[in-house]
Specification:
The chain is mainly α. The chain has four helices and no strands. One of its GO terms (molecular function) is antiporter activity.
């Protein structure tokens, strides 16, 4: 169960870092740039801890899939970026894939 806590922390830190990457305006704004660097470093650290007991492919699929969906939703909420029907369908399929992996796959832990 601890692996999922580290994976969740990795996802949250990656989402924060990516959101600040947008706000950093090409690394021209100091504080969002610092948050971006620290957030990505923390995310990769937490992901590396989760990889001690999870298979790499499954952990990365969950990390990137959930991250994509959360970043897309935050971009919609914070930056008013549109999500059209194909984007929403694609995100639904990504989440369905994450659910299938976690529910049915025996390769979650190695």
């Amino acid at each position: 169960m601890t692996m999922y806590l580290y994976l969740a922390a990795a996802i949250v830190l990656e989402v924060i870092a990516t959101t600040c990457l947008k706000v950093s305006d090409g690394f021209t704004r100091p504080w969002p740039s610092v948050v971006t660097a620290v957030g990505y470093a923390g995310s990769f650290y937490c992901l590396s801890i989760a990889l001690r007991s999870m298979s790499t492919g499954v952990a990365y699929a969950i990390w990137s899939g959930v991250g994509i969906v959360l970043i897309s939703l935050l971009s919609w909420l914070l930056f008013k970026q549109r999500l059209d029907a194909p984007a929403l369908i694609g995100m639904g399929l990504i989440m369905a894939g994450v659910i299938v992996i976690n529910t049915f796959s025996r390769s979650v832990s190695h």
